[in-house]
Write a structure and sequence with these properties.
By secondary structure, this protein is α/β, with parallel strands linked by helices. The chain is built from seven helices and seven strands. The protein folds into two domains: 1-81, no CATH class; 98-251, Ribonuclease H-like superfamily/Ribonuclease H (Nucleotidyltransferase, domain 5), CATH 3.30.420.10. A hairpin with a 2-residue loop joins strand 3 (116-123) and strand 4.
Amino acid sequence: MDNNNSTSTPTEVGLRLEKKPEEEAVDPTTYRSIIGSLRYLCNTRLDMSYSVGLISMFMQNPRVSHMNAAKRVLRYARGTINSGILLAKEKQGEDLKLTAYSDVDWCGDKFDIRSTAGYIFFLGTTPISWSSRKESVVALSSCEAEYLAACEASCQAVWLCSLMRELEVELNEKVKLLVDNKSAINLVHHPASHGRSKHIETKFHYIREQVNKGSLEVEYCSSEKQLADIFTKPLKLDRFSQLRQLIGVRSVS
């Protein structure tokens, strides 16, 4: 891929990969090798997390369309080979805080009707933890999908706070989780007013417990300011470039 033209985004907008048994197959060993390398690269290239997760779903029986999507990710990596994240030094006297963003693409996969959820955590201004993955159950509404995604982020928040205590890093504020769905936030604070939430499994109400204990604060943010959007779906170039900069991916050469 060294001589191929680079691309500005890792995934084409509107791309819907499916299992197509009638399509020509490709060498699964080569395909899995590419995915494994890209997975390793995602340890520092969080802007590629969604794209790599998407093509990872077809490792068992890859087809030509899946390989083409993987090659596009490689072309994007080639064009941004010097990009990465840096651990920024906080200003002296500035309080260290943990901030998170959680978002979801409701029913993003038209094959199994499951939503793709994503979150990102910042320690100060530096991204330290992120995720892009399908939800384990089918959500019946965008509110439910956002609620489940926020719950996954709350579990990660508790683990990160525990890690900070072990490292003797003092956080002066409770973890702030930013969600762009007011119905999901309302469900966190006022469960009795939502009869439609009775079918949600008990394990997903973990976020409510953390809010009640005072260890987590859930706030609303507009969709335009939702940084986790980059982990849930393919985006147009201008939006992708904007979010890539905001999540801390920059040239480190």
